[in-house]
Amino acid sequence: MNIYFQEVIAAHVAIERWLGEGAGDEQALLARFSADYSMITLAGSVLDAQGLHEFFHAQRGARPGLIIELDEMTLVAEWPAGAVVRYRERQMLPEEETTLRWSTAVFELRDGRPQWRHLHETRLPG
Hints:
This protein has 126 residues and is of the alpha+beta class.
């Protein structure tokens, strides 16, 4: 499997555990993301690396029972130092409406490992 697809899956497993169970290593989770990270959230806000760190720190275990499912991963583009991956993400919480989104992630290779550089999410009708 493509290393970028592997990273998308591994990151979402770590995020699901962090938010849903409060489990995992915060530094290892944050190390996945570039110091230059940016994100366009579902609400249309721009989040930088510091904002992401603050979000994860504040939200540890805040979504008990969270399940994240991924599908339709596509390698949009790849070059020697990075790639763009598009995937569909479904987040489910007990007794809450499921959210479905398209996500497009830009990766940089750092020491041979993919690092998240940018993420853009677009909500889909549920």
